## 1
Amino acid sequence: MSTIDTNLEKLSKSVMDGDIDTVKFLVKESLKNGVNPLEIVDKGLAKGIRTVGERYGKGEIFLTELLMGAEAMKVGMEIISPEIKKQKKELKKVGSIIIGTVAGDIHDLGKNIVAALFSAHGFDVVDLGVDVPDQKFIDKVKEIKPNILGLSALMTSTIPKQRELINLLKSSGLRDKVKVMIGGAAVNEDYARDIGADGYAENANDAVVKAKTLVVSP
Amino acid sequence: MKPVLEFLSTDEVYEIHQASLEILERVGMKFENVEAQQILRNAGIDVDSKGVARFHSDTVEEYVKKAPRSVVLRGRDPKKDVFLRNGRVTFASGTGMYVIEGNKARKSTYQDCCNWARLTDAMKNLDFSCEIHSTDMPSELTDRYNFKAMAMNTTKPFVGSSLSKAGIFDEIEMASAIVGGKEELRKRPIWWAGYAAISPLTWSENACTVFKETAPYNIPAFVEGESVIGGTSAVTVASTLAQTNAEALSGIVFNQIIKKGRPCILNLGFTHPMDMKTCLALHGNVVAGIVAAAGAQLARFYGLPSAAWMATDSKTPDAQCGYEKALTGLIPALGRTSLVFGMGQAEFTFAVDFAKLIIDDEIVTQIRRTLDGVEVTDETLCLEAIERVGIGGNFLSPKACETFKFIPKETTELTIGDRNTREKWLEAGGKDIGKRAEEKAKEILATHEPEPLDPDIVKKLDAIIENAKRNLGRKA
């Protein structure tokens, strides 16, 4: 194995360990050594976060370890992104997502975790926050044209909003322009199907996996 | 603080102790073994023609003090040795003559005993193991077969049974073969001998023999008062404690006379309340737990280790089994009982259930967490993290990363219980815990290989058993 490969291997391991300082160091070091930034992402950062996600999916690690991995990935990407632009290279685009908690609901723990993971997996994430007015979702979808709209609602009293928003997308002529994913403690697969959402995920990691399939599907 | 559950005030502990002394002086304790009677007489204790020994308080107190404060249960692997310390709670498997499979029970075999030992070897919460009986072997020899099965399939300390004097000698030989000779056995007694008094107030022929013959090797003695509450002891917990304590104390006095400084365990926790309608001795009952916890308090008063039994009267891994196991495990554990037996136990103490062992391991995970209590330090208060995360944030973020190291200690993880959403649960087959545990037990048995016993030692064990078989034939 070459020194470059060894370093990238170490980088992916550091992402897995959530070791932010080492990630910073190794990314800078690799760039200094002239390694192609896209390769640093592909063989280092992205490989690390994928493994973390898989291990989380298998129940081998805690949520905090997943999130530390995501944070390490994010820090690495912050260093590498300007370099990618400078070299006029383009990162293989994974997709874009607008995410927010629906009007009347201010819970954001789950939504923030999902946003962090999407970001770590290379999605462009626009987080509209909590208690987001219906029209704001619609306006942002028009403006950004994301692949996915993620609607979070925790309470049984606010989950009907998810249905309303899907109907609003229809009446605004946007429903076929964006895939809708829903999440929150009170919703499930059946409910998602019932209200005409494209996807539902059990947890943050599943959400990313599901979103990736939605992005490539027509 | 680490929680300690106490059922007796300091004064009450003293009062029960005095009541036990009064019983031993006024009523006395019968020793059925003639040699034992003579040993007691030689020590200056008054033993009448019927074998009833009456003890003076000062004699009892003098001899009980000789029992050491430090008791170690030793395993084939020294790393698995269990040091019984004040406040430390350890857990062991149950025992039985039947194996439960689904809603049926069948007699346990030598192979079952091997598998049982192997499964207990794999359980992370199980500190030491109890045999189940090889009922497919000649009944006079099952103790030797059980011993071999246990020795071969677990490196943890284990408890055997001794059915006869010849059995004891053979088991001493077997234990010596494993540790490398009798001298080594004195240093590392990897085996321990237990016997219960026959309530009310009798030490049987066999109990005296077991204590006597195992004494020279300093093998820890498990001295038990095991009354049936309401049947062989009065129905009140207070009286049961006074009587079973008297029984166990007299056993400890006998053990200290024959071998000063022999490690002893004062066990009042195998006492079972009687069902006043059916006459059955109940095991999965909170009263048994209360007696065990109060018994542990008495044992601590003498500076000795104690024991209890987490049990259920249920026949299947059902809801009754779950709540009885949790209660009869948690109450003695919170009472800081040194040894809690019964993991995998079912149907009184008749049977074991491999699936239940898996479930009980998880119950013990929860019990251990309860015993750890609440740790309050500058570090565990996490004030800096609270400040950094701030209002409206969350503690899963890297801002709180110094708190993550507490996750394994502060939270509990289930390995067999279900914490999934309905969808995930259905996806995994929608099975109840009994079914999942059964599958897990099979999976462990298919993969777990304990450190094997040296083949030369196995040959020695086989030779001892063969010899016992020949002797048995000669007798017949």
## 2
Amino acid sequence: MTSQTFSTWGRWVVGHEQVPQDKLPSEFAKNQPLKAFMGWDGLFVHDTTVNLVDMARAYMKLAREESCGQCFPCRLGTEDMSAILDGICAGKGTAAELDRLESLARLVSQTARCDIGQTAPRPLLDLLQYRREDFLKIIKNKAPIPTGHYIAKVTAPCTNACPSHVNIPDYVEKIRIGRWDQALSSIRNDCPLPGVIGRVCVRPCEFNCRRQHVDSGIAIRALKRFAADTELASGDEPCLHSGPTKDKKVAIIGAGPAGLACAYYLGLRGYASTIFEVMNEPGGMTAVGIPDYRLPRDILRHEANQVKKLGCEIRYGVNVGVDITLKDLKLQGYGAIFVGVGAPEASKMRCEGEDAGYKGFMTGVEFLRRIADGEQSVEGKKFLAIGGGNVAMDCVRSALRLGYTDVNLIYRRTRAEMPADPVEITEAEEEGVKFHFLVAPLKIIAEEGKVTGLECHRMELGEPDASGRRRPVVVEGSNFIIECDFIVPAIGQVCVVDCVLPPGEVEISKWKTLPTDEITRRTNQPSIFGGGDCVTGPATLIAALAAGKNAARFIDQFLSSGTSTPEDCDYMERLISKLGVFNSKEKMPYKDSKTKLHPPMMEPEIRIKSFDEAEGKINAASATKEASRCLRCYRIAMAAV
Amino acid sequence: MNTMTLNGKNISFNPGDTILDVAQENGVEIPTLCYLQAADHKGVCRVCVVEVDGADRLLPACATPAADGMVVETHSELVVQTRKMMLELLLADGDHNCLFCESNGDCKLQELVYEYGIKDAPRTATYEPRPIDDATPMIFRDFNKCVLCGRCVAACNDVQCNDAIPFPYGRREEKPLPTGWLPLADYDHCVHCGECIQACPVGAIIEKKAIGQARSWEMEKVRSTCPYCGVGCQLWLHVKDDRIIKVTGVEDGSPNKGRLCVKGRFGYDFIYSEERLKTPLIRENGGFREASWDEALDLVANKFKEIIATHGPDAIGGVSCSRSINEDSYNMQKFFREVLGTNNIDNCART
């Protein structure tokens, strides 16, 4: 048996190395073995009962359907290959057709414009090379072979890297051909807040863009913002259609990105939902944690309003756990509950004086929230933030805008280890923030209850820790004091799910996060789901949106069938991610010298004078030009289970 | 240093040039079918693929930038075989019968099929007949001849900016042939400029008035200037037996670079009108009589002189016709100001 199983996986993409068969995934889902897999980099077979010729037929049929038809070889070649394979599987094939099949497969993979055509013939070419006898046997028998069922998924490196799997090549192409409204509806299939995400996404897609192997990656975020801004400027309302109205309703705790996304996709599925929000504003940390110069509040409000139009009510100022309990919600007839309460509390620094209540000391989260609420007061001149993440960047850059003239940031590692977005770091630097690396806080110095400085020590980098980053180690005797008027630590946030959910009812982790199934987002209670930072700890906005979107699908499943179980497409996505769609070592056959589109930015000296949005709009011509650089790296994956 | 090897020859190139640009500059012919320079439309037909050393696939010459040290073969055995197969596929997809085709003798596909010695067009997939669009008086579209190169789409949207041929984009499953996926015209936006006809490399979009009038080799091409507005677009008159069969724009001629409007391309019938004036007419006794140019001009000159002598030059005014070229209008105003002595001179500034 095993002698006939085989793998060619990894032999195609230049820079790749062929993966031994035992290193390839053999499980599709729990207790469901993966029998065979065909994809952009070849195929592998774990179980000889799979009829590979039939699978190749199904694979080519899908390639033919996915082919966009713009380039000749893919349009015509996939059509012909599909027809030949249909004939062979129907018992009407001839041996001569195999040669033509091979020539066609080679032609298409050699000349097609995008990855659909370039990669789709690869498994077929492998089969014709290593398993030609399988084809010949069927041709000789002259009898139709049974048609199998396969699980398929179309992906792309950018799409796979996006937590919400937005169909990026699709909307980029629609921008290229001027169908901006269609581009936006394509985005909305997987991301309900395009204007928000188009401004502040950490864009894993761009780091997985294959165009960077040619010259520079596509400005995917800026294109998304362009699509959203165009609709906003036109005054057109998005064309959103909710499904047939369902009689069950859902309670959502928290109007942050996870909660809004969940409500949005529940609305599209016909469910009414009620969001209970402790603040008086939609957006959660997106509203009070991201300053206006990066994300103007009216954009967020506008997109939250669209969620409301889909049949969602937001009740502000309701503190679930205090004003209303889970039990009350169930009694009020909510069939399911989604918990998306985020990670709103600041982590402790374990630094002397942080709990003393000194004037001039405030956590980053609190500092940003006060600015969001309109508080503009300034304590002295010298501002000091602690931390290396995006919240720390938001704090220092906001401090400059408030009027602090000497803004500093200390971080215990070096610039290379900073988790903040490199663009944010550069922009903070341009604005005049002073960075002090390899410095960690020790003690807050205060006089008469008011901060006057921070005692720090110097650090050096030691061995790598669990995160792979080199662990900072204290340099003994290096203590020194930085004089300052205001200290803001922004070293992380923690979850407080226990404040919302009473202990005992739903399982809560020792970190006060809410454990859920990684796919269905269900907690240990069948009717309670959760997603976003309260599940994962502080993470990204797009990950929270993805969690809300996925939870909506499984809440629908639960309310209509009583259970929530992952679907084939979920397992397929997991399998594809395991195999890896983007290959950082890939070598492209040509180079170009086009530069990535950079949206216009206000000059640093002007932008620090106010909280006005710093990044400007891009025009249609530059959006089209940028979109035309997309390589359209669609890949087709197919599994036999 | 920007040098590369093209078919074994070492040559230098300008940064930013594509392989196709470099080949054209060096007299190496690479066939293209979809490339429409004016709209930067390229990369569709893949007929221009070339072999580049070190590349794991063939690269389209029209869309691949030349790079220092690149080694390119434009007619290697692999390249020629690939182009042949692509042309076979194209030929099999559609109804490409040259006997019945208006573009016989003036067709990119026909040229390439002959050049590459195609003898057969095998095809396994079935061909479903596609629609014919005979809805308007000027343009005839037969999508059975269409190769889906996208040139008409680019010409309409990016050259003329009329957006009358929506980009036929979408997954095949959602837009199946024969109607989906075709460059169908949206006549709500179409201004009948005929740019799509000019862009079509085959016989899928043609001038309706020319149907059955002449074979391409029977027509003589006469260069002329459009008689309508003062822009002075350059035309090719396709003439058979002293009659204009059709009009196309001169691709490399300024100011229009091949573009024409509906009047320039289709509005030539008036020259055959029986009611056209062929000589000057002088009104006499309540009717007109034919006169010679000398007689007519003498009459006008004498009348002008009389009027000026009696009422002064400002009693005369002139309107120059916008169909005249700029130079003629200039001369007319000079004549009025300098010779007749009046500033009463205007231009209708419209056709």
## 3
Amino acid sequence: MKKRSMYFRMITASLLRRRSRMLVALLSIAIGATVLSGLVTIYYDVPRQMGAQFRNYGANMILTGSDGRFTASDMERSLKEIPMEELVGAAPYRYENVRIHEQPVVGAATDMTGAKAASPFWRVEGEWPASDGQIMVGANVAESFRLKTGDLLTVSYTPEEHVETDNTIDLTITGILDTGGSEEDFVYLTLADMEKLTGEVSAFDVAELSVSAQSDVLSRYAEKIGEAVPAVGAHLVKRVTASETTVLSKLQALVLLVTIVVLALTMICVATTMTAVVAERRKEIGLRKAIGASDRSIIGEFLGESMLLGCIGGVLGAGLGYVFAQQVSLRVFSSEIRFQLLLIPATILVSVLVTGLSSLLPIRSATDVDPALVLKGE
Amino acid sequence: MSLLELKHIYKIYGELHALDDVSLKVEKGEWVSIMGPSGSGKSTMMNIIGCMDKPTKGEVLLDGVDIAKESARNLTAIRRDKIGLIFQQFHLVNYLTAVENVMLAQYYHSMPDEKEAMEALDRVGLADRAKHLPSQLSGGEQQRVCVARALINYPEIILADEPTGNLDEANEEIVVDLFHKLHNEGTTLIVVTHDPEVAEVAQRTLVLRSGKLHKEIVNQNFTGKIHFEDMDTFRKEETQ
């Protein structure tokens, strides 16, 4: 038998045949690893989770034409620079002066699905327009013209080159928009209806994008869009991105601080447990020294035991940590946490290192045991 | 050259002279008993011979090397290579089986060999108990595992401290028989004991008193069998 086989046989025997003793140590390591792994999972998932929350506050990137309006194809090419999974919503807007009951009103044509996704905070009494022939009016417009959902509304448009002839279109009001902002002064119709009304193919004044990414990443996307599509300029909505960054960095700092405190407490806890484990095995250490074990061998054996314990604790901690993080995420963010595969080996490694380091001091002191103690029959 | 030679050994703790000018020689293959009342210096002498302590003064020559001058690391190596220890309280590692306890001594010495460890257990009549943990063995069986562990690396000296102190009569007989066997195979034995019946089977008995070598009883008729004449005289003196 090789020395290494005997070494592993000894340390596994120590863990398996002294189960009740080792269970206490394992428990302290596993709890520490669980909390650590859970907190780190939350730490890394906070930007994503918070990003999703922040997206409720609307667009964080605006596209404008570099030289007037930009086309649907420009918009499409711009969106290609943003990963699909990060794009929460994209709403292009074309603004035209239209008339309702001979009164001028700003008509905003948009992709309703995109607008709904990019502006989830908009409160709509009734429904969003689901197809052409439908219109949503701002609350102020509705009040001025005494409009309500279900009404048929005639919208007129006077092309500049044909001032004498009006284009009109009849649309059904499906919803009244209440945002508390300037949007209440507009009417919202589909891009196709606007084309029908104006007789012109749609080109956009602006597009509102809601992207689930932090400001530094957003800036990168904006640069890429600027380079790839010269007709479009991408700008961050600083009001939103700056506050997102501030809140995120504070939250992450808080989680990091708690993680460091837990790490320190885990180390103290493991060191205390290992001190107790070593103390109750002084006789065994004395015996090993008496029959010829060098200090190095004893350190190696005890360190091996504690690191194996750390490894088992780490495996448990990685699994339980995910459950812990999931529960926190469900309760706090009401959404599932994203499982970080890399966190499994990382938790095991950290657990092994923490256990090894915290055991080092008590193990080193174990080598001071006088082997003569066992001969004295104490 | 003697295998072990103590030359004017002193071990002094403050005012206390645990060993006071003790000199003795043990030849290769000899069986020597050390007797004496509590506090006579037996344990101190055991620790010094077992390389677990150093004398305050004097020379301890083991195989010609003065172990009193060696570093702690070298003493560990000497203990590992030249000395087999047997304890009164057995001191087996409680989570290792009998055979693993024997292999532990091999592990620190050279290379663990399960077959050889099994043979050593067979020599002490415990081959069928090899896979048992110490808690599953009787006191006598544990002591026999301890003997197997002590002899596995073919040490120059087997040093036994009260080897029968915790055993009943039947097990005491088994252990003494094992010592006979080892002695017949040429092993040098130094046995510290309170028990005159264990001491008297040795070739020589050294009696310590107050840290000094009080008496040396040579068993002239030693044949590997028990002779009581000399010990009877000792017993009478002790009881007076």
## 4
Amino acid sequence: MNKKIQFTLGMVICLLIGVYWFWQFTHTTTINIQNTETNTFVEAEVLINSFLENEAQSNKQFKSKVVEVTGIVKTISFTNNRYTVILQGKNNDHHVLCDLKALDATSIKSISHLKKVRIKGICKGFLKDVILLNCIIINHKSYE
Amino acid sequence: MNKITSLLLLLILFTSFTTKPSKIITRQGQVSFFSYTTVENIEAKNNQVLSIVNLENNEIAISMLMNAFVFKKALMHEHFNESYIESDLYPKATFEGKIIDFDPTFKGDQTKIIKGKLSIRNITKNISIKTNITHKEDVFLISGKFDIVVQDFKINIPPIVAPNIAKTIATEFRFEYQPYEK
């Protein structure tokens, strides 16, 4: 009888762990960047230069952090059904790619080519450009 | 004499304007992967994939940040990066290869094979991918599909979630290249 209880108890515990894992794996929603506190404020050129000079150190400083970056708009691209604001660096080879959180046409209309903009997003690292995801345009009226 | 000089200047100008780019680039290529099981389907997209093609020798290079894959659920993203891919240790996946028998001057659609080395988690495998290439004006669109076997890259899946993750991951890519101007 004792062995039967122990077996049943074991099975229940395993089932509970399985349900917990499954729930955790499937029911967590994505981060709300608007309500998340900014970790670092930085100029686009400074951010690019930092990664160019020391990528490992910059990853420690910026990667997975909420970064508010100020820079000049080089282009606004609409690729893969998403808006990306590309901030220019000192030369034409390295930029900051800011992938906007949603198809927010209103905030996109508030910025234009060669104008200064402030964007908040999560820094993912560096390829040829610094990559920021989940971005929102901070100096847009609806976020002020 | 003046006429000859003018003609030569015109020829030089014409040549410089019609010179084809030797390299093309995309900074916003898309790579997506799908895991289909009876328990659940998992899908993720990376929209910031970097790729450069050298049109003089048809060599192609691709690089992507593994933590830039976007999932529907934040916890899937966390497990993918922390438990499976270990993106802090292996932040990038890369591909280096060559487009076989590719003629970059041909306008229109071509189907070609890309052969090369795919590196994930510092493990490199030789792969061949069938691709569709569309060349219109200065824009090249390269797209295709291939499968990745999870075990090939020594990705450890805990037994408790093993039924949720497919053993073979279907992968798709779509790169729209522009001339590379530095």
